[in-house]
Amino acid sequence: MLREVLKIGSRRCYSYKSVRRPSLGATSPPKVEATKEQSGSSPTIENGHGSLSKQLRARILATGPIPVAEYMREVLTNPQAGYYMNRDVFGREGDFITSPEISQIFGELVGIWLVSEWRKMGSPSPFQLVELGPGRGTLARDVLKVITKFKLGAEFSMHMVEVSPFLSKAQAQRFCYSHETVPEDSQLPHYQVGTTATGTKAFWHRRLEDVPQGFSLVLAHEFFDALPVHKLQLAGNKWQEVLIDVASEGEKDFRYVLSRSQTPVSSVFRPMPDETRSCLEYSLETERQVGLLAERIQRDGGIALIMDYGHFGEKTDTFRAFKQHQLHNPLLEPGSADLTADVDFKLVRHTAETRGNIHCCGPVEQGLFLQRMQGEARLEQLVSHALPENQEIIRSGYKMLTDPEQMGSRFKFLAMFPGVLANHLNKYPVVGFS
Ligand SMILES: C[S@@+](CC[C@H](N)C(=O)[O-])C[C@H]1O[C@@H](n2cnc3c(N)ncnc32)[C@H](O)[C@@H]1O
């Protein structure tokens, strides 16, 4: 633990994704130009990620400008050159740092929250601990430690939903005693399997749909912000989609253009009844995945805890890139930087409540959630056991997570419970959310 604590200090100078975001126009749309049916612009500049840039360019030249969502999906998860697929993107050498990597207190309190809500539901056994987009596996490892410490006396298995072959190995190394890759032709719903030091089985799946049915405790930390978003703009009384085209002569790589005709997404998009924005980001993939979670929780029982930076349906333009802890132009050198967009928690909540009989709590700010979970008490306990030279490091890690000026208010928590528990949860409010 001390080693982990010591590391926090050297991480303090890193950026976490939401903070270095300048005013990219929280109220204004991106600069767009009218689309051309066929673009004849200059060749893209060669760079270290030239192959992805070339593929995208060839595709756009062949079929026309593509939605931002398609660009984002390709850049992040293209099997050969996608940003997440082949390397460690976290920490000092990477592009950003996340809460579980900043302080062990984060994963511990999330673990305690999960165990306490699971107990309130009657300690169903067996259960599945599911994590969407586990990164380096640090949150899963810290939650696993809590579960082990509490000696639940229940059977459980772990299920990681991860597209990156590289990161899936890093995760297994973080919390498994042994692991192996499952042969491609096995027809199994998982592609990697491992065993933790205490004998718990862990499985890796490419999609949430592949996680077996059963009572599940689902965690998603900084997963939804990596899901593709469509950019839409209201023109007259019609929603039009902002697309990505190859750049004009003299410009670099790619540029935004406004679709002249309706696209599949702009034609099916239905804004919320009280929508006032004239440009917004809409994640069809978020809607799909939250819908799957809602159906699963309603059918099998369980809880989902979504933790991410986001807003409640008021922001307009948050699509951005991070490279080496700095903001980066998302249209430059695709594949060399992380692409992200703030999560629309209004859409998440609305989808959960309409796709299943789901009771949602939140969103609440991360700082409040951690304080209500007695974060200060855990902080003081850790500090009292630390060497004097490490005490300030531990304090500053916790401050970074909870200070409204840092990660405390931009990051939010939303929980999904089976709707049948609504009356009970209203009577006995969920810790952290009230
Ligand atoms: C920003 S990282 C967050 C990592 C981790 N939860 C943390 O907070 O440190 C996003 C994670 O989601 C994974 N990911 C991104 N898109 C995905 C998708 N469509 N399906 C499954 N995993 C995905 C990435 O490989 C990575 O593990």
TrEMBL record:
<comment type="function">
    <text>Arginine methyltransferase involved in the assembly or stability of mitochondrial NADH:ubiquinone oxidoreductase complex (complex I).</text>
</comment>
<dbReference type="InterPro" id="IPR003788">
    <property type="entry name" value="NDUFAF7"/>
</dbReference>
<dbReference type="Pfam" id="PF02636">
    <property type="entry name" value="Methyltransf_28"/>
</dbReference>
<protein>
    <recommendedName>
        <fullName>Protein arginine methyltransferase NDUFAF7</fullName>
        <ecNumber>2.1.1.320</ecNumber>
    </recommendedName>
</protein>
<comment type="similarity">
    <text>Belongs to the NDUFAF7 family.</text>
</comment>
<keyword id="KW-0496">Mitochondrion</keyword>
<keyword id="KW-0808">Transferase</keyword>
<feature type="compositionally biased region" description="Polar residues">
    <location>
        <begin position="37"/>
        <end position="52"/>
    </location>
</feature>
<dbReference type="InterPro" id="IPR038375">
    <property type="entry name" value="NDUFAF7_sf"/>
</dbReference>
<keyword id="KW-0489">Methyltransferase</keyword>
<dbReference type="InterPro" id="IPR029063">
    <property type="entry name" value="SAM-dependent_MTases_sf"/>
</dbReference>
<feature type="region of interest" description="Disordered">
    <location>
        <begin position="21"/>
        <end position="52"/>
    </location>
</feature>
